[in-house]
Amino acid sequence: MKRILLVLIAGLLGAPVVTGQSSPAASDSKTAETAPGSLTPEERTRAVEYLTQTQKEFLAAIDGLSEKQWNFKAAPDRWSIAETAEHIAVTEDLIWDRVTGKIMPSAAAPEKRAEVRGKEEMILKVIPDRSRKATAPEQLNPTGKWPTRAELVKNFVATREREIAYLQETKEDLRSHFDEHPFLKTMDAWQWLLFNGAHGKRHTAQILEVKADPNFPKS
After folding, report:
1. DSSP 15
2. Can you list the domains of the chain with their CATH numbers?
3. What's the pTM value of the predicted model, to 2 decimals?
């Protein structure tokens, strides 16, 4: 399990591995496998609810922070809330662009569905688990991309809302378009979007850890 967690995060873009809450109800894999065309109602609802829930959790975690709190570091080698929030937003964009720019334009391959059956359960359980640590790929490290907190939040919300709207409205078959993860191997587009929510949930927990630090500013 430890090895799986590390490769899920650090392996997202092929980066080297460095050692270091509740999930939605399970979908009916048989229904998902046999449904023609679009997502099943269960798959659509599950993803929309999960992305909506994890968005609310993230925004609540960063709401009302002072500049001192926003930039507080528990240690020199630890991320501040500002840096963690940027990592969430950058990764959100990267995965969304991957789904819309690479995975869905690729040829449908429904014969691969069996390879990914049930993989979402691992994603939703293991990715948010903060008991084991991982190092982010260099291109997902915070660099101060957004000049202000408001711009970061605006960008994240815009991307997440596009994802949610897409899941609500699309007639495309997200379960028949795939991309290879370096260690998880085959994942379908629906699972990649769930991965985005799980990744945000993981780092929202990291933000809460910063806020729980005994030296975290009171205001």
Report:
1. P
2. 39-211 (1.20.120.450)
3. 0.84
